[in-house]
């Protein structure tokens, strides 16, 4: 039982939300200033970048009930858009993000229209082909993409002079990147939050939960699914651009099918139907792909073959199955359950609920509220 | 979204049989029409190809494409078997086939059993493993909720690939073949060479498809498959054991997949990723043939194989590595123009 009970929308609830938000923001702003090591700042920056990709995938999988195994291609598309514009056309880094969004929206719609027009799991088959095709396409156009050699930008993104971080320390440039990426990511989280709460967000939930009933109540199911997929691809594209801001180098092997599957692992682990779930998801993603991979690389398994890195694949598969079985809501669901032990937030009754009260009975207690 | 209700007995009793016949005839006409379109497209391209590169080269490419396509069709068949019983695409099908092939390879390599026996061992082991996987990892989920099941199959893909890489490493290995492989073991057709390995592979694949088609259209198990696929609740009420039916579909699919893997491995070499591309071609084949049609899987496989061989062979800009792109375009084109595939049925729902 919760120690405190507060009702949604009350002063205490508002103060709690603002307090938690400000505390989180302060934590994220101070974080790079107290970390002495460049590598750790870069790791945290990567977590922020991938959280945007996972957020986009969550809009599609968690909120619209469609599954994509091709998000690596869209992350790659965004990344290549940024690096090509920066390296070949001298664009400023941040100005390339809207272009990435546009490119990925169009690409997402082009892939989504044939696959989502009809019911069924066709999006998954199409997107797995997209994920496998992307590295091939990259190598097909080496004059644009650098082919198998990858592509690099000569200059990193630099902060304007008035910015408070001193760029002439070792941790200066990565900290600049971190702040730029953090601002963009925060904006993306805000956009995702608003999409989910909007009319189209509710339509996405309806399509996920009961496609036939959604169609019967006048929701254009195919359009909503295509919208969700295109927006989700655009989020992945932004994540790709951010990854290039963090490290201005791309290669075809960075955006393979495994990236897509690991994004899904991270999404499920973090919590697919929750905006905030993208953050623990991204932490799981980076920990699996860097720390555990490094640790496993050194393991000596089965008579000296240096294939210990494969442990990561087995672990991730096991983790995915464990989450689907034991905690389908992901880490964020576990955290919410923990919070509920301390603070119970009673949802606000729906507006005008008295009008819809069952006539003929005078009930003074609150109406049944939706399950959280 | 179109909501059609074919396959439903019409309410006046007299119309029942006629309604069924009309629908069946419409389905046959539709299948014939789309097969005609595909044949016409292939024929038109063939004319260009023969003019462009001569008859011998053309025949060689057709033979290569068709024999590869038969293998894609076999993997597509495995996908179709699971899809028919569960409505779910098993993304781990390729990884399971790869694992089974490695088991067969180990049997040949370590225990020196004859190849036929080794392949049978691989098929039986993978069928057993698939039955176990179905029981432990798939059955606990609500069969009508596909998302968690797909995620489990992706987890299996990840874990099986990693496990195989851990156990056997990434070095490509040669896999023995069932058929004579000498440099002059071939039939000559108009100057093109049809090697006995390819011919044998194709014959085995066709035999498997025919056998499965007959089994599933004539036996109680096949009836149970179709029953479960069309309506889980009603099948349960009729006393069909849902779990066991789905389990046997997983087992048969895994055995077919392993056989396809063992037949493909001599030409592609054996390593933990060797089925990945084939799986995507098989997706194209299954989509083209219709995800719920066993014969369609084979037809789709052959057409996909032909399309890949001809397009990458005669359009120099595409090049050999663009086979994946061809598969992608096959999937997109089918979804755009005939979503139910060449021989598949349109799906229906009742509100």
Automatic annotation (TrEMBL), chain A:
Its main location: membrane. Keywords: Cell membrane, Membrane, Transmembrane, Transmembrane helix. CDD domains: TM_PBP1_LivM_like. One of its GO terms (molecular function) is branched-chain amino acid transmembrane transporter activity. GO terms for cellular component: plasma membrane. It is found in: Cell membrane. It comes from the Bacteria. It is a multi-pass membrane protein. The chain crosses the membrane at residues 20-38, 44-62, 69-87, 93-113, 120-138, 177-196, 226-245, 257-288, 308-332. This is Amino acid/amide ABC transporter membrane protein 2 (HAAT family). It comes from Actinophytocola xinjiangensis.
């Amino acid at each position: 039982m919760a120690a405190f009970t507060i009702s949604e929308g009350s002063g205490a609830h508002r103060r709690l939300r603002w307090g938690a938000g400000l505390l989180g923001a302060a934590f994220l702003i101070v974080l790079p200033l107290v970390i002495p090591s460049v590598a750790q700042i870069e790791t945290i920056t990567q977590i922020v970048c991938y959280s945007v990709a996972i957020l986009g995938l969550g809009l599609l999988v968690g909120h619209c009930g469609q599954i994509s195994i091709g998000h690596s291609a869209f992350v790659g598309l965004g990344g290549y858009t940024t690096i090509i514009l920066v390296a070949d056309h001298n664009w400023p880094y941040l100005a390339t993000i809207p272009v990435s969004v546009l490119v990925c929206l169009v690409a997402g719609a082009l892939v989504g229209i044939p696959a989502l027009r009809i019911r069924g799991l066709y999006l998954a088959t199409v997107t797995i082909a997209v994920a496998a095709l992307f590295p091939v396409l990259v190598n097909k156009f080496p004059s644009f993409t650098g082919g198998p050699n990858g592509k690099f930008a000569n200059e990193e993104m630099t902060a304007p002079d008035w910015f408070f971080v001193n760029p002439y320390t070792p941790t200066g440039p990565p900290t600049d990147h971190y702040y730029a990426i953090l601002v963009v990511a925060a904006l993306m989280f805000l956009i995702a939050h608003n999409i989910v709460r909007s009319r189209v967000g509710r339509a996405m939930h309806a399509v996920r939960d009961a496609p036939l009933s959604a169609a019967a109540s006048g929701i254009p199911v195919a359009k909503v699914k295509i919208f969700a997929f295109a927006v989700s691809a655009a989020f992945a594209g932004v994540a790709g651009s951010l990854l290039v801001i963090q490290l201005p180098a791309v290669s075809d092997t960075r955006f393979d099918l495994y990236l897509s599957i690991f994004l899904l692992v991270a999404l499920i682990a973090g919590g697919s139907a929750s905006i905030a779930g993208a953050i623990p998801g991204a932490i799981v993603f980076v920990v699996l792909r860097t720390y555990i991979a490094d640790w496993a690389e050194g393991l000596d398994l089965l008579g000296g073959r240096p294939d210990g890195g494969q442990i990561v694949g087995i672990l991730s598969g096991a983790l995915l199955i464990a989450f689907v079985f034991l905690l389908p809501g992901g880490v964020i669901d576990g955290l919410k359950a923990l919070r509920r032990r301390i603070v119970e937030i009673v949802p606000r009754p729906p507006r005008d609920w008295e009008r819809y009260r069952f006539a003929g009975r005078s009930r003074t207690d609150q109406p049944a509220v939706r399950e959280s | 979204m179109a909501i059609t209700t074919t396959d439903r007995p019409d309410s006046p009793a007299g119309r029942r049989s006629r309604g069924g016949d009309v629908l069946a005839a419409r389905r046959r006409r539709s299948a014939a029409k789309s097969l005609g379109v595909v044949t016409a497209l292939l024929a038109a391209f063939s004319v260009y190809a023969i003019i462009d590169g001569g008859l011998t080269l053309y025949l060689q490419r057709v033979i290569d494409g068709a024999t590869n396509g038969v293998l894609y069709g076999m993997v597509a068949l495995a996908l179709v078997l699971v899809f028919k019983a569960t409505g779910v695409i098993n993304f781990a099908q390729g990884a399971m086939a790869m694992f089974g092939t490695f088991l067969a390879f180990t049997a040949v390599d370590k225990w020196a059993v004859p190849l036929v026996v080794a392949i049978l061992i691989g098929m039986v082991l993978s069928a057993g493993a698939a039955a176990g996987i179905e029981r432990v990892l798939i059955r606990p989920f609500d069969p009508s909720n596909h998302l968690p099941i797909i995620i489990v199959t992706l987890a299996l893909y990840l874990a099986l690939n990693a496990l195989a890489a851990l156990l056997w490493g990434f070095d490509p290995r040669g896999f023995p073949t069932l058929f004579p492989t000498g440099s002059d073991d071939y039939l000559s057709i108009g100057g093109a060479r049809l090697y006995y390995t390819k011919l044998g592979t194709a014959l085995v694949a066709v035999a498997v498809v025919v056998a499965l088609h007959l089994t599933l259209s004539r036996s109680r198990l096949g009836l149970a498959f179709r029953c479960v696929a069309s309506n889980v609740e009603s099948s349960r009420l009729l006393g069909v054991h849902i779990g066991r039916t789905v389990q046997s579909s997983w087992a048969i699919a895994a055995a077919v997949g392993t056989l396809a893997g063992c037949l493909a491995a001599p030409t592609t070499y054996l390593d933990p990723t060797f089925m990945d591309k084939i799986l995507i071609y098989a997706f194209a084949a299954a989509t083209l043939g219709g995800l719920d049609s066993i014969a369609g899987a084979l037809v789709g496989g052959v057409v996909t194989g032909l399309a890949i061989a001809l397009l990458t062979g005669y359009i120099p800009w595409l090049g050999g590595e663009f086979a994946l792109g061809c598969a992608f375009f096959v999937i997109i084109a089918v979804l755009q123009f005939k979503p139910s595939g060449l021989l598949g049925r349109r799906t229906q729902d009742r509100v």
